[in-house]
Amino acid sequence: MADSEQLSSGLSGLSLDANAAEVPEAGSAEGQLPEPIVTSDGEWIDITTLVDRAASELASGALIKQTHFTLFDAMMSVEVMDPRLDMGILTADDALEVSQWDIDRQLTLREALWVALQLLRCEMTWHGSASLLQTLYTCNYFTANVDGLPIGQDSSNAVRDMVLFPIVIATGVGCRYVWSEFSRYNLFGEEDVQMGTIEPQFFADFSQRDADILLYEAHMYLEFRMNEPGARELIEIVDSRRHWLRALGLLSAERMIEDASAAADGLAELRQMHVAWPDDEGTPVRGVFDPKCMRRYAAAAPIKPRELIEGPACVQELERMAKDLELVESLVRVESVEHLVYMFQKIHIRAPSPFVRSLLMTTLANNEHVVLAESPEALVRRAVLEMVAAPPRALAGWFANGDIIRVFLDWFRTLAQNPPRARRVAYKCLGTWDALQGEAEQADIDAFGAEHPGRDAADPAQNPFWVSSWVYHMKLMLLEGALLGGVRLHVYAAYELPIIFGYATQVFEAHAAHLDRMHMGAPGAARTQRLQRVGVLVRAQREMAVATWLISHMFERLLVFRAPWHSKHSDAATVLRLESTSAQRARYALRFRHVSMLGSPTHLSFDGWCASAEHLDECLLPELLGHAQNALSAARTILGDAKDHRDSGNASVVDAWADACRLLYAVVVANLVAMARLQQSGVLRAKELMVSGAAALEYRQCFLQADADDAANDRPVRSKKQRKDIERARKWRDAVEALARNKLNVTCVQGAHPDWPVFSVPGA
pTM, whole model, 2 decimals? Predict the structure, then answer.
């Protein structure tokens, strides 16, 4: 009876009026939750019958609710038992699959092979920013309680205990190294890795040595059963897992900080690892993997099951991670700050996995020391002195400024982020480097004035501006990476590439001129070999940027040719020069808004860009191709000269940036080959198409206007010259339509270097 009264009291607060306002109960605090309806012994009461009877009395639009339950709560609630929203609900097929799980199942070697391969797919998918609940935790062997199991012993379930569990445990121990790196806050949740809200358990009772012994015993056990199906494939998995686990231990940040030679040993382990996805994937085992395991864990929000990467792609990802770990070993062996700078540029190009990126950042700076066994202050001082021969008094006191140390280390950390974040952070850091350059210029003036009292310290012809020259150089490198990084991320449409690479050409030009001034400028300027090598690299990039600019202009010209006559849009995208001038100006301002706010280099205005485009429009397509080939030849000559001056003292540094130049060179060559195919096909030599870009736009406007007048039966009186112009314009249109009928398809794709585009012409 008491329970019924309590139930009635609890239901008295329910609103049954569809039009009733949400008014708090009299005497109750706003937002105070009512006590749950329970019996005197604390058990919940089943009110299903009561709610069904009350619901039958509701009119359309009425709602039964507590007064504290608002519309906001209703919208935020999860539809429990609805498969579309409740990710943990078990369907009939799911329930059948779960019921098949049996940890005591007697496994065959082929069944163990299948589980091991699927577990590898889970692990590699996890490395690609998936959640544990979507990958490794779906494996019931991975989350099973192994206490009391005879793991590593020849038991009645020998395949499970001697083969499968050693592989599973070794996987967990390896993931423990990865998770410890994830927990250093070098990465960003949602972008890099799904940390989740659960505390992972990676077989904490097993050490790396324990896992290594288990894998060794598994190898010996499988050798006795070598002639059985699946044994040979399992031996390859066991041996590869053993090398991988040893490499992770040797390449951990703590081990490398303690013993730098451990990195070389870890690299040797990686080189012994051989992974190949077998043709025979084994026999599937029902119930081992539970894609909806999240129902067993408390999570902030339902997690949607995720497709695992396929087997061959899984092997490629593992090989890529092994290759990326070589970067960590290279970081320990850097010989100079110049080498360090170009190594991080290589890291930025490769965009390694989140684990490797975090490990690189951890290794870079630790315990107040950075690579090269120096303090951050000493590293910055060394970076400046490698580029400029500044007197000690010029640097005295400047490095007490903590900003330059922080900004310099952030320069490396920025390049080690994922590509989208690296680009965003780089643009934000440009303002900091710009302000730092201003401070450095004043410090250089003060230092030079104290060093040479009778000279004009503000005159660039006399003052080499030691520190500010180095700061400007670092700022330009950051700007170049941020500007071209949008190509990799597909931020720029294909028709915008002429603008981007035209602007990049101006930046490279300013950078080369700055390095020339540092090298050959005022008395006292540095003339170091490192400065000369950096200048060679920048000049080579400038020539390749010029070639890419010309080719992208040709590409955009062809888009103008192919733009449909009835609209302002082409098959690929809006052609920039068919937009209104105001739209072009707004687009230009948007693309370069970060650069326009910098004090240097001089911002190329929209009018200046238009003048450059008009100059290129005066050239025919074959002429542009010839200019691009000349630029490529100049880049090849510059790189050849640098290679001839390679010696034992600068070999590693030259090799570091030569790899990047080789990728750029391959991209530009591919572009020239694509356009040369057009020329060989006769497309670029067609008489009607041998016009400038400006003439093409005039022809287009001419026949469009004439067609519009004819369609409206409004034919104005035209002079002889106007009739000839219309006739030429229509012949040009016929030639373009013939070009389209030949299925010419000029496309822009990501090239060997992710930040530089490749134009392909498959139809030529």
Answer: 0.77
